[in-house]
Amino acid sequence: MNTEIKHIHHVGHVVTDMRAALELYKKLGFDCLAPAYPMMTEKEGEAPKPLGVANTHITFLQNFVEIATVIKDGVKIPSEANLVPIQVPAAVLPRVLENVKRTVDTVSRCLERYEGVHILCFYTPDVDGTAARFNTCGVGHSGVNAVQRPVETKSGMKVSPLKVLEIDGEDVPEGRLAAADMPPLEILQTQTHMLHPNGAIELVEAILCVADSELESFAERYQRYLGSDIQEGELTRSFELKGARITIIAESKLDNLLPGEKVPALPGFIGYTVEVKDISHTYKYIKENGFPVRNTARGEIFVPASVALGTTIVFRQAK
What we know:
Blueprint: E1 7-14, H1 18-27, E2 36-40, E3 49-50, E4 53-59, E5 64-70, E6 82-85, H2 93-113, E7 116-123, H3 127-137, E8 144-153, E9 156-166, E10 176-180, H4 185-188, E11 200-210, H5 215-226, E12 231-233, E13 236-240, E14 245-250, H6 254-257, E15 268-276, H7 279-288, E16 294-295, E17 301-303, E18 312-317
C-alpha cells in the first residue's frame, strides 16, 4: 500500500538525569550532541533561567534518537550543555509559558510511568498530505505546525525549518506520536556527530509492547496512522516502511523476542533497533565497556533495559 509516511523520524528516550544519560550513551559508543537547555524569563524584567525540557540528539543520516529530560531546580546541568536564550515579547510570554508547561507536563507524565522510550515520530516528506489523509481516516491531530530545529553542522549551528503534526486529538496511552519532515539536504550533508564508535548508522525499528487482548486494536490504529499493510506474525503485528519497521508485540511473546525483558507499564515502547556496520565490532565494543549483551530471537544483539535507563537497545547488522 502506498503511503506518504516513509521512515522513522526519531524516537525519544525520556530520562530523569541528563548527565547519567550522556554517560550511558557515550559508553555504549554513541556520539551525542551537547544537550540544549532553553533559557527564558518567567516574568518580564527577571533574569532568564533554564526552563522547560532539555534534550540532545544521537544523529544518523536520515533520523535520530532524542534524549529528553525535564529541567528541575537543583539538578546540575551538564558542563557541556548549550544554554539557548529564548527571547519572547512580553505580549506573548503567557502563551509561550503555557506551551512550555504543557510540554513539561507531558514529559513528566512519561517519567511517572517509567524511564524509557515514550516518543515516536514518523518521517513524511509531505506533512500537509499526511494531515489531509488523517482527516480522511479520522485520526485526531494538532494540524501542521511550523517549527525550527537547531542542527549542528561542520560550519556551526544552523536553524532548519521543520513541519510537525502531533497525533494528539485521540487517546494515545503509549506516549507521544507525531509525524514530521526532514531538514533540507544541504543541512543533512554537513551534519556532524554521525561517526559513532560502535558503528551505528541508522535507527530502523521502534518496538511497542501491548496486552495480548489489545494487539489487534493497536495494529488497526497504527494502520490508520501509517497507511501501510499489517504484517502478521505469531502475536506480533508489524509495519514495513522504507528501510524501517514498527513492531507491535503482545506481552506474552515479549520474552520470546527479547529474552528477560519486561515492559514496566502497558502499553509501552520497550525499545528500538539501530543498524550497525559490523555487528562483531559492535558486540566487542559494548562488552569491553562492561555491558551485558544478549541475543534476540532474530539473531541480533541487545543491551537490556535494566542497564540502559529503561530502554532496550537492539543492534542489527546492516545489509
